[in-house]
Amino acid sequence: MSTHDVYCLCDECMAAKADKDKANSSVKVGDVVMFVDEGRYSKWFWGKVAKVVAVNAGFCQVRWLQKVQYHDLYPTVSNFNVDRFEVLR
Predict the structure, then answer these.
(1) pTM of the model
(2) Is the terminal CB of the chain with fewer CB neighbours within 10 Å at N or C?
(3) CB within 8 A of 40, min separation 6: which ones?
(4) CATH architecture designation of domain 3-87
């Protein structure tokens, strides 16, 4: 789903959103996830894979499986909304 689909209400986009919501509602500690958000952080994190180490109130803390460069830093752990991830099964 691309960023233009965020506000789209067609059947195809709504079905894709429902599938994503269903997948993300089951994010739990230990899951392997991929960053799929195409917004502000995509330049650094899009397509990167991490393991979920904590979940709380719609957010998750992840530990990156490979180095991720964010500006001049290389964070090993990040906190993002679960909607920015896709669970890899």
Answers:
(1) 0.71
(2) C
(3) none
(4) Roll (2.30)
> Could you tell me the sign of the dihedral formed by the alpha carbons of 49, 40, 79, 23, in that order?
negative
pLDDT digits (tens, 9 = 90+) for 34-70: 999 999 999 999 999 999 999 998 899 999 999 999 9
Closest CA to 44 of 64, 61, 78, 69: 69
H-helix or E-strand containing 35?
strand 32-35
Contact 62, 85 (CB under 8 A): yes
To which residue do tokens 């502000």 refer? 40
Give residues with Cβ within 8 angstroms of 51, minimum separation 6: 30, 31, 32, 33, 62, 63, 65
